[in-house]
Amino acid sequence: MVNRLALLIAILMATEGIACDLPASEGAMPQFIITTKRSDDKVVVSQQGAETRFAIQCPFGIGRAVIRRTADAWPSDVTIRLYLKGLEDFRIDNGSIVLQAFVASSDKDGSAAKTVLIEGDASREIDRSNPYWIEIRRGSGDVRSEDDGKPEERYFDLRLPQAIFLTNPVELKLRWIDFYRS
User: Fold this and answer.
1) Which of 139, 118, 137, 135 is nearest to 127 (CA)?
2) For this UniProt entry, which residues form the secretion signal (predicted)?
3) Positive or negative: CA dihedral 53, 161, 89, 146
4) What is the pLDDT of residues 1-46, one digit of tens each?
5) Mean pLDDT taken over the chain
6) How many angstroms separate the CA atoms of 115 and 67, rounded?
């Protein structure tokens, strides 16, 4: 019960950009400090099995966040869930390299997603065989619009590549842009 209460407090604090410290115990979630550029952006951290998910809701559609780890290392499986209608641009910077990903507005399932590796002034599109490839899956929630019956919560799950964590960066900087901004 104590661990669940600490987890709930940590998640609530993290969504407000405040330090998120959990008691060091077996099975406790990794620890993070999360800040967002806009006060109405929310980030909720959850863990299911080995996956740690950062679910980001951004009403404006354009945002930034910094995720700083306070644990010794990053979790082995990290997914960023962006609640957006379209993914015009996503960037993640680990201090050494920047990865850029996007999905064409006509792509219904994320299968035609692109990833670009940016090192210094050089950038190049990479394919699924590259260790820096970001796997993207488009999804929708179970909530349906009363007007037309279509799902209201649309999101993109971006499974971060292990290669971005090779240097064990202290923080990751994220930026995103929705095709369909509010």
Assistant:
1) 135
2) 1-19
3) negative
4) 444 434 444 444 444 443 333 333 445 555 899 999 999 999 999 9
5) 80
6) 21
Domain count, the chain: 1
What is the pairing mode between strands 77-83 and 51-57? Answer: parallel
82 C-beta neighbours (distance < 10 Å), count:
22
Q: Which residue has the higher pLDDT, 17 or 54?
A: 54
Sequence-ordered strand ranges (E) for 84-177: 89-93, 98-102, 114-119, 122-126, 135-140, 154-159, 171-177
Distance CA 152, CA 142 (A): 8
The reply to whether 168 falls in a domain is: yes
CA distance 75 to 163: 13
List of long-range contacts for 21-26, beta carbons under 8 Å, 24+ apart: 21/70
CB 65 within 8 A of CB 41: yes
Task: Please report which confidence band the pLDDT of residue 71 belongs to, taking 50, 70 and 90 as the band edges.
Answer: very high
Strand partners, 32: 20, 69
Q: Is 182 within the bounds of a domain?
A: no
Does residue 76 form part of some domain?
yes
Say how far apart CA 148 and CA 106 lie, in whole Å. Answer: 20
pTM listed for this prediction = 0.77
